[in-house]
Design brief:
Layout: E1 3-13, E2 18-28, E3 32-36, H1 43-51, E4 58-63, E5 66-67, H2 73-78, E6 81-84, H3 96-102, H4 110-123, H5 126-129, H6 140-152, E7 158-162, H7 170-185, E8 190-193, H8 197-203, E9 206-211, E10 214-219, H9 221-225, H10 228-238
Parallel strand pairs: 3-8, 3-9, 6-7, 7-8
Antiparallel strand pairs: 1-2, 1-4, 4-5, 9-10
Bound molecules: adenosine-5'-triphosphate and magnesium ion.
């Protein structure tokens, strides 16, 4: 399988010393990679480095073989790396439809935008069903789904989701995880960060456990999930 994104020896921090202590991470085309780990392990920091919001002090980030190290967030977005942030990010008073269309604001080809809208509506019927309603009238889980739909309007090569299940009730959480799995099954390469380690690793083709700014363990999602050491260290408290 071809490597899409590769981090090698990445060190990065916020001015008071490095938080990431040399992170190696490889994401295959078509995979669903899930990063888990305790609070403060550096998961979101890895995402910030990938999106160009934080520049590494050492190490490299390569995408399809091209160096992205030190490139701007705008350049990285233009390469097709799109992130859905942890917090709610829809424009609350705008309609569901307007929010989704806005995802493609940078796409000049109107017919391409229409084609993508059709694909997104097929995958997420709620976008059509609730199209005229303000985004704020949707539940937290529904808003998350609409955020996925909006991100897909850019047809990303890599879709990054930071803790999409946070704050959702168990039933809605299941819906969100099923949706994440569906996006991956339809061919999308995904990078997921999750507090909900059992659910995240359960759907992941590749699981990564971070601790203290390092990758502590990685392998097929289910193997990581069933690793006794990991169960003892992380899963009891977070699942
Ligand atoms: N903007 C910042 N300025 C200074 N330190 C920060 C900043 N953001 C994060 N940190 C520190 O970097 C470390 C790693 O944070 P990070 O957000 O990457 O952890 P995380 O694994 O995403 O944790 P969580 O599960 O709580 O989201 C923490 O010690 C945190 O306090
Ligand atoms: Mg985080």
């Amino acid at each position: 399988m071809a490597t899409l994104l590769e981090l090698a020896g990445v060190r990065a921090g916020y001015g008071g010393g490095d938080i990431l202590q040399g992170v190696d991470l490889s994401i295959d085309e078509g995979s669903l990679t899930c990063i888990v780990g305790p609070n403060g392990a550096g998961k979101s920091t890895v995402l910030r480095v990938i999106s160009g919001l934080l520049h590494p002090s050492a190490g490299t980030v390569r995408f399809r073989g091209e160096s992205l190290t030190g490139r701007s967030p705008r350049t990285i977005l233009a390469r097709g790396i799109v992130q859905v942030p942890q917090e709610r990010s829809l424009f609350p008073t705008m309609s569901v439809w307007e929010n989704v269309r806005l995802g493609a604001f940078s796409v000049p080809d109107r017919r391409l935008v229409e084609r993508r809208l059709a694909t997104v509506v097929e995958m997420f019927p709620i976008v059509a069903e609730r199209r005229r309603e303000p985004a704020a009238s949707l539940s937290g889980g529904q808003q998350k789904i609409v955020e996925f739909a909006r991100a897909l309007m850019l047809d990303p090569a890599l879709l990054i989701l930071d803790e999409p299940s946070m704050g959702l009730d168990p039933k809605t959480r299941t819906l969100v995880f099923n949706t994440v799995r569906e996006m991956n099954r339809s061919g999308r390469t995904l990078l997921l960060v999750e507090q909900n380690a059992r659910s995240g690793l359960g759907i992941a083709s590749h699981g990564v456990v971070m601790e203290s700014g390092r990758v502590r363990l990685e392998g097929p999602g289910v193997e990581v999930l069933n690793n006794p050491e990991i169960a003892r260290l992380y899963l009891g408290a977070t699942a």
